[in-house]
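Encode chain A's predicted structure.
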Amino acid sequence: MSDIELQWRVEEACHNAWPSPRQMLLDGWILRFSGGITRRTNTVNPLRGERAAATRIIPAAAKLYASLGRPLIFRLPDMASEIDAELEARGFEFSSDVTTLIADFSTLPGEPADVELSHAADEAWLQAFREGGVHTDESMAVYLRMLQTIVPPHRFASIRRDGRVCAHAYGVIHDGLLVVESVATVPDQRRQGMGNAVVAALMHWAAGEGAEAACLQVVTDNLPARALYERLGFTRDLYHYHYRSAP
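Encoded structure for chain A:
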């Protein structure tokens, strides 16, 4: 498989692992309108194949996002960034370079013994997720709708201490790839290897389901997270993406 084919395969898997409950297709682009604070599900994203040029997609998308009172943001992966220069010329601001990492399953990390896997996120899992960021009731409702929209096989991993979820992640299998999302440890339980453990447990689950590799996306300058993932075998830098936000 060529690099470009693998890049699009991973891109598709990542879309399905973090779906938007509200979206539409337009001339080779997918426009996502989930609401909440997550940019991935509130942006214009390129699809594989032929796409409308900048002169068509920029004004068309601008009208749709404006009609919903939403900011216009493009998410541009390396293999489909042909309109980046035009966006920059129009004053769209660059932000958040993100790296897509991949790990094959030829060698797996050790399987942890204290990680629970479940089919759904319970209240304790969601509370731990909320503790790890700045989330309002509205953004949590959007996140929950997103989780409920996931279709491919998926599992929610957690480590619990006295009934409290101290570390969490979830994984989705699409086309032989495990996509790892929402990896975090609550602040007072960090530096104990829990983040490593929940990801490793998902990798073992996915390998048992026939997946051949795992992928995830991480902000490029988040060096502690990248070091954690490298220890788990995520050593291949497959492609990057960034955002362009309308002025």
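The two ends are 39 Å apart (CA to CA).
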